[in-house]
Amino acid sequence: MSVEIERKFLVKSDHWRSLAKGTVYRQGYILTTNKTATVRVRIVGDHAYLTLKGKTAGLARSEFEYPIPIEDAKIILETLCDRPLIEKTRYRIPLNNVVWEVDEFSGENQGLILAEVELIHENQSLELPDWIGEEVSGDLKYYNVNLCQNPYQLWTTKN
Amino acid sequence: MSVEIERKFLVKSDHWRSLAKGTVYRQGYILTTNKTATVRVRIVGDHAYLTLKGKTAGLARSEFEYPIPIEDAKIILETLCDRPLIEKTRYRIPLNNVVWEVDEFSGENQGLILAEVELIHENQSLELPDWIGEEVSGDLKYYNVNLCQNPYQLWTTKN
């Protein structure tokens, strides 16, 4: 198990685009009846992962991630995961001792761009690049699992 | 991925007890909103597994099983799985080219004993030992995931 401490922001300009090349992520969720657990299958390039995540407490969240055969992941995405799948291109941008991950969504979440940063501890100070906009760390609708249930394209109010 | 073809029966006598020693199984489910996928975490002795199962079609069901660290499994059972957990002792009984697995449940499913046999193909002939009772292969309430939601002790009509 690892514990993930994450802050999440909107972006307010395209200045991040020149800073990194993107990698395509394709992932799906098996939606759960309780609000505690998230079950995710993700394909990144030639690799695939099955991940369980626990409840968020503040910025922290327990995470259990296991590599699985990509052929399994394809079948699980196709036959077991809820729709829509989440498709996005992730740009990794190292800046000032942290790594920003900018996710540009496509498919039913096209138009949404989120920037996330993983921290060592919750009170870690963080220098915000000029392209970083409003913080949305606590806002449930930006969770990827919720973008599967209520994709961005269906939002009546968009930031 | 493997495909599991299974038949399930009640037992009608204790004649199976002298045929095998039991192993304790402790497992839990993260209940899903769709009826297609099952997410199970299981501890057997020193080993632990994370398993996804697909929808049952006839007697067959797709299964994706991955070994995980037992310490992870304990935390997942404790913090992410729905209640009650399933606790049972499994007796493996090889007979006439198949292996019968007799599950004697405890905890909130105490009193229930099920015998399962895994087959190579759906039409495989099967010799039934004298201690095998009614077949319950298609009966959803005997699925372990449903014994988590509606445990045997709460049933008003018991076989």
Which properties best describe this structure?
eight-stranded antiparallel beta barrel; 9 strands; homodimer; Hypothetical Protein Pfu-838710-001; CYTH_domain (chains A, B); mainly beta; 2 helices; CYTH-like_dom_sf (chains A, B); 159 residues
Q: What does the model show?
A:
The structure is a homodimer of 159-residue chains. Chain A has a single domain (2-154), classed as Hypothetical Protein Pfu-838710-001 (Beta Barrel), CATH 2.40.320.10. By secondary structure, the first copy, chain A, is mainly β. The mean pLDDT of chain A is 94. In chain A, strands 1-5-4-3-2-6-7-8 form an eight-stranded antiparallel beta barrel. The first copy, chain A, has helices spanning 70-79, 144-149, and strands at 2-11, 22-30, 38-44, 47-57, 60-68, 86-95, 98-105, 113-119, 132-135. The radius of gyration of chain A is 15 Å and the shape is globular. Chains A and B meet through strand 4, strand 5 and helix 1 of A and strand 4, strand 5 and helix 1 of B.
